[in-house]
Design brief:
homodimer, alpha/beta, Rossmann fold, N-(1-d-carboxylethyl)-l-norvaline Dehydrogenase, domain 2, 2 domains, 8 strands, about 50% helix, elongated
């Protein structure tokens, strides 16, 4: 079994770490890569081919994990050479996922939930071909959402709708509590019903959202664009909150 | 030790159940009560005096637990006869709490968190006199917030700010998930990070909010009035959402 990577960043590197088996070989290419990526690849136990075309042709599973912006171009350029599965793990919208699926056979819509560099990320798959990836459950938690391409990306976006809006709510309510000189008490009282980890989780969400507010705003905008026909009162308020 | 009640509904009845001791006697009056309340009182192990004035004068701890609307009037009428502690447990705003405190000495601002008819409600107290209630921790979970009258009511309101806005968020995001035919998957995927009880809790919050949307809206309006100087983007969105 050969798994090929287009893109060799955090996702690919950690998948290699998680999927360790004598029966699996990993391949990629240095074609057009930055010096830093080349350096990273050379540290890993991975075979390097001359071109990405060769990587795609040789892979039983080709994993596209580069960047949301380049995901579609990668599929346009290399999708047609796929012999096995083409698994997209970029953080892209259901629409882009669907668009990509046109350029390759045996396409699998994949979404990573949780931190890929942790010990327990979960892969969500959608599309008929995802059945052929079920063996990965020996190495990593995974779940097939449905046969419908786009459902994994959509589910990730739905999750994001909740978590990002929740962060905006946490920012607002803790601000009011702070202005009332009852911030600690606010977290403590909520921990009683929301679980003992509430405070730490809430503070980590608030900090993470404030430190990355530009990116979080963009992601909320993407959600609003995608679910445009829905009533999005809370999500739009969250975007407004983050833009302050 | 004598504990007297003005108001004999769910709160008073359950406090009697929780605070059981040979050293404590309970008193109340049937004065002006409804046939139903009279019937309820007669079922309990409680001494009945002719008037509330007598109840207040005899109580070491007088508990006002009637209704948010009558809380202030009760204090105006009976507060001046208090010899011991006057504990208000009505669900009232910090402003009303402060207003009530003018009509009686040894006032304690009390707030009930959790369901009073469960085994683990928690009482929050504020005000200097709350130290004299600390012995209640033998019977019921309790916490003193501060010496500042209004802080217990304020803390309850801050909690409410979060939980009611969260319910609006749960309603909105689960609606979108449902329209995407991914409602179960939406709850499942969030349970991974929000805890195994997430789904049950979320559904109970959604149902409870929808079934009581008028009252919940009024409570959100009260929050918006009270914290009017704060930036309340998320809370206002929650009110808008509930009004649909």
């Amino acid at each position: 079994m050969i798994i090929g990577f287009i893109g060799f960043g955090k996702v690919s590197k950690n998948l290699m770490r998680l999927i360790k088996s004598d029966d699996i070989a990993f391949i990629t290419s240095l074609e057009g890569r930055s010096p830093k990526t080349i350096e990273n690849i050379k540290k890993e136990d991975i075979d390097v081919l001359d071109t990405f075309k060769q990587v795609v042709e040789k892979s039983d599973i080709l994993i596209s994990a580069n960047s949301p912006k380049s995901a579609l171009n990668v599929a346009k350029k290399y999708g047609k050479y796929t012999k096995g599965i083409y698994l997209d793990l970029n953080n892209i919208s259901p629409d882009t996922t669907f668009e990509i699926s046109k350029y390759t056979d045996n396409f699998v819509d994949g979404a990573i939930i949780g931190k890929i560099d942790s010990d327990n990320p979960i892969l969500y798959f959608a599309g008929k071909s995802s059945d052929e990836l079920l063996f990965l459950s020996d190495f990593i938690q995974m779940k097939k959402v449905s046969d419908k391409i786009g459902d994994a990306s959509k589910l990730k976006m739905l999750r994001s709708t909740y978590t990002k809006t929740l962060s905006a709510l946490l920012i607002e309510s803790s601000e009011i509590a702070k202005n009332s000189n009852l911030e600690d008490e606010f977290f403590d009282i909520l921990s009683l019903t929301e679980g003992s980890e509430f405070k730490d989780k809430a503070i980590s969400r608030i900090t993470n959202t404030i430190n990355n507010s530009k990116r979080k705003s963009e992601e909320l905008e993407e959600i609003i664009n995608y679910f445009g026909d829905e009533e999005l009162i809370m999500v739009k308020a969250a975007l407004k909150k983050l833009n302050r």
